[in-house]
Amino acid sequence: MSDTRRRVKVYTLNEDRQWDDRGTGHVSSTFVERLKGISLLVRAESDGSLLLESKISPNTAYQKQQDTLIVWSEADNYDLALSFQEKAGCDEIWEKICQVQGKDPAMDITQDPIDESEEERFEEIPETSHLVELPPCELGRLEEIADLVTSVLSSPIRREKLALALMSEGYIKKLLGLFRVCEDLDNREGLHHLYEIVRGVLFLNKAALFEVMFSDDCIMDVVGCLEYDPALVQPKQHREFLTKTAKFKEVIPITDSELRQKIHQTYRVQYIQDIILPTPSVFEENFLSTLTSFIFFNKVEIVSMLQEDEKFLTEVFAQLTDDATEDSKRRELVNFVKEFCAFSQTLQPQNRDAFFKTLANLGILPALEIVMGMDDLQVRAAATDIFSYLVEFSPSMVREFVMQEPQQTDDDVLLINVVIKQMICDSDPELGGAVQLMGLLRTLIDPENMLASTNKTEKTEFLSFFYKYCMHVLTAPLLANTAHDKKDVQEGSTKINPVCPDNFQTAQLLALILELLTFCVEHHTYHIKTYIMNKDLLRRVLVLMNSKHTFLALCALRFMRRIIGLKDEYYNRYIIKGNLFEPVINALLDNGTRYNLLNSAIIELFEFIKVEDVKSLIAHIVDNFYKALESIEYVQTFKGLKGRYEQEKDRQSQRLNRYRRDAKSLDEDEELWFNDDDDDDDGEAVEKRMEEDFSDSYGKYMEAKKGAANGTNGANSGKSAAIPPASPTGTPNNSSASAVKTVALPATPVVKTALVGLVDYPDDEDDEEDEEEEEQSPRKRPRLSS
């Protein structure tokens, strides 16, 4: 006996045909004395209590689904299911169940009234002799017929044979004739039996039966049978709804009778599936797969027939864009196109491509541009749905149309600007439409789905177009609501929010716009950077840190976090120059000791700067804000920033120290350099260049040389500050080379001068003495060729 425990969830089916979670535990299969057999036990993982104790009955039909699910029914209307965490556990328990029942674990269902030997015998004998024998179609035999239909549902083979019997004898139409008789006699018992029969026949899942049942002369009687559910006190009025309430609207008259019939049939069958039939149980979920396919292929056929009728669609779009069309008519036309696009989702990819190209050729996008700008809310909502189908199908097609639009003086007529305005002006308090439109805009400006061809780069062209013609429309509400200067905001005695303090809907809209801008920061490097710098956008966004709506303050913070996350020094300099950390730190301090999402998000921002060691920002934060932040000790973030800052200062000091200490060796190198015998070929060219660059100094040096030769000190004033007076003991043979090297002399004192006073070292005096000695050395005297 296997006693391996496996982690599972236990589910039971409630009266509403929904699965209820009974808890999580570990399942085992073991012999239970009280139940006299191998049983499935599930003990709760929390307290070890018994969640399930179910004997594996030889006659119970167990079914394995999706590799990790075992379902079965223990009694009428009491279905159970075990959902396994691991496939291996499911397989082990399934093998135990099959072992008890003597079945093959390779099967997904354990029970079938006909065993394999019988099945083989049936295959050897002609099918016609083994059809299920149906009772005569009479009022008195309805109960027997209902029991027969219900009994075969658990056996695939018997379902097949019953379907053949129903088809061969024209039985369906006879049953529907009995329905009309029972309804005339108000025979409720017979009507209840007919409900069970028709429902069972639908569950046989046979397309040939559906063709009969859903034909024009039968479908309403099928709907009538399904009204008389035995569980209901009074029958439903489905036929009344389908014939009187539901109206078939022809926006443009459909002349094809076959198309009209197909549309009626599809609507009614969809109604049966969605409204009339109860939610199928786990066992029944696959029984209606053919019904779903029936509806699917009907829709494909409808779309194809309409698409082929070019005159029909041309008329639709002509009326849709005609100014003379009445509003009610236009509403119906838009709803038709919306449903038409929804049907198209059933098409295969290649057929769907052809469908949308047909719509594009007929002018769907110019039509949308018109109807999306109308005042009728229903028309705008339907047009938004159509637009979403188009963007989902091909963002490039929409972008290409937008860029080909004539550039008029008023940018508001552009399709994308119409979409943006509709997003901004959404009247729904929850901004449902605005959220949908924002998602579509993000798809359109997402570089990931932009194609680059040999002749043009879609990404560059479209983003340039968007930032030139559309970005100002998108940011208008943000700039309008943050127009107050920050100083004005601080003048009040309490924290003032310039962004419609009590207007939740405006705050939601600004949050959506910020979400889109944050997306742009992540994906549009150059264009958004230029826009932010030119508009000083981050400063305006950070005004929203004062908002009483915390979600809006978080959106503003997220925008800044994305910018800093790029670690771009252009952005960093912009933030430092504008002192843009101030509103963030003020928000942190205003938040006080509250440990909330805003607090955590701000600290995470500074933690990122610390961990990534963004030196420019660390220096700015510590220099300007550390006094305000040093009291925050419940996290080590700010002390860490200070530590990073000190480490960087130490490194800078050490670097300066190293330069300072290298001065001596630099002087020694110069001495060696002057003592070298320079006869290289480049001397003349270098001498010429130096004489040109330092022509003024040349004259002064010559004067100094003559003055020194005459024993006067007048040349002192003609020399640069870096060259002290020296005795005229030059060597004529080296005069040419000396002229070349004189230019290097000022370099040494310049380095020294920059370092003097930064750090005092004990050996400074010694260095100065060395310098004096070296400066008095005849080798260091300037020597220029005459």
UniProtKB/TrEMBL annotation:
Keywords, comma-separated and alphabetical: Coiled coil
Pfam families xref list: EVH1_PP4R3, PP4R3
Skewed-composition ranges (Low complexity): 707-722
Cellular component per GO, a single term: nucleoplasm
The Serine/threonine-protein phosphatase 4 regulatory subunit 3-like central domain, residue ranges: 144-647
Bias (Acidic residues) ranges: 670-684, 761-775
Segments forming a coiled coil: 642-669
Family matches, as SUPFAM superfamilies: ARM repeat, PH domain-like
Location of region: Disordered: 670-694, 707-737, 757-786
Amino acid composition bias (Polar residues), ranges on this chain: 728-737
Domain PP4R3 EVH1-like: 5-101
GO function terms (MF aspect): protein phosphatase activator activity
Matches recorded under InterPro entries: ARM-like (IPR011989), ARM-type_fold (IPR016024), EVH1_PP4R3 (IPR055236), P4R3-like_central_dom (IPR006887), PH-like_dom_sf (IPR011993), PP4R3-like (IPR051137)
GO BP: DNA damage response
Family: Belongs to the SMEK family.
Family annotation (PANTHER family): ATP SYNTHASE GAMMA-RELATED (PTHR23318), SERINE_THREONINE-PROTEIN PHOSPHATASE 4 REGULATORY SUBUNIT 3B (PTHR23318:SF18)
Role played: Regulatory subunit of serine/threonine-protein phosphatase 4.
Protein name: Serine/threonine-protein phosphatase 4 regulatory subunit 3
